[in-house]
Amino acid sequence: MSSVNLEFKDIQPMFLPLQPALPSVPGEGPPVIIYPPTIDWNWMKQRPQQLMEQFARHGHEVYYCNKTQLPGSEIVALQDNLNLVQDNIAFIRTKIPELKQQGRRIMIWVSWSKLYAYVDQYQPDLVVYDYVDDIPEWAPYLDLMVKRADMVVTSARALQRQIARSYPDTPSLLVPNGCDLDHFRRHRRAAPPKPAELQGLRGPIAGFVGAWAHWVDQSLIHQLARHYPAINFVIVGVEYAAQVDRSIGNLHYVGYRTYEELPDYLYFFDACLIPFKINEITIAANPVKMYEYLASGKKVLSTDLPEVRQVPHVWIGRGLQDWKRLLPQVLSDATKFDVEANDRWLRQQSWAMRYRLIIEALRSRLHVPV
Predict the structure, then answer these.
(1) How far apart, in whole angstroms, are the C-alpha atoms of residue 206 and residue 232?
(2) Which of 39, 73, 220, 231 lies in disulfide reach of 86, CB 3.0 to 4.6 Å?
(3) Would you state the pLDDT for residue 131?
(4) What is the pTM of this model?
(5) Are residues 171 and 187 in the same domain?
(6) Are 77 and 191 in the same domain?
(7) Do 167 and 189 belong together in one domain?
(8) Is 72 helix (H, G, I), strand (E, B) or coil?
(9) pLDDT tens digits along 119-138
């Protein structure tokens, strides 16, 4: 096996063999949007799924390609204009030529830099790179991806500064993460049934939703749980190359729950946590969970991430002693949560607002008729 094949062994099975890009006839009109295989549609619904849903809701034909492949499967309509592709090779071989024969303009929205070598298999008229994480393993492919892209969208100010500094001639745009406000506000008028895992808990709940991964400061949570045995620390999400310590009695691991289930758990949290370590990944992170916590009406305690500073109802703890001091305050009913002020801020943070930013940039900077 060649060194190239070894390097791309995680990607190659989803694509045709690598070869020079073939010339194709430019398409016209509003673009068809294609998201190449990166994350499965039903797995931890986040920025890619949310943005593709916005494109579809606004009338664009969207093809979301799952990373999990089912060779021989048909394209599945998830909702109006939004289609799920689970056989990417067949999609490239049959659907792409069909779209090109129809004279359609194809736009690739890609968030995995390592796919730079494969995006041309979709015969795109336009490539937008959504730079969402400064992950060291992806860094070797960043330059090649940015140079292939017609525009770079970034999710955090640190990423935007990096692109503007290193690639001043490439159009770039800051589009932070956002939230489906209605989804996380749906229990405002009536409480949902209490999830079984929470029914036996007595005392306040400080909750975390998301991947329990190496960028989470697990030691911080362990020390807090031991210091405050009357507080329940509830973890909802996958264990991602890390495990929740089951030996701590008031540290409760629920496991992975679907996007549809998350509001049911958040309703019963008294405060929500973003206990990230401070490193090159997290200083460039714009946490989706922050928006979802706030939309659920919860106060938030976070480590000192640049993207959470000066956000209403987010308290910042700088080190263990700060967290020990702040956690009881954030949990206390005496620390008020201004619902109206929170709603005013959140109205500008919806995924629909993020979509508008993208569309305006496509029109003004790339002159795409969207």
Answers:
(1) 6
(2) 73
(3) 98
(4) 0.95
(5) no
(6) no
(7) no
(8) coil
(9) 999 999 999 999 998 888 89
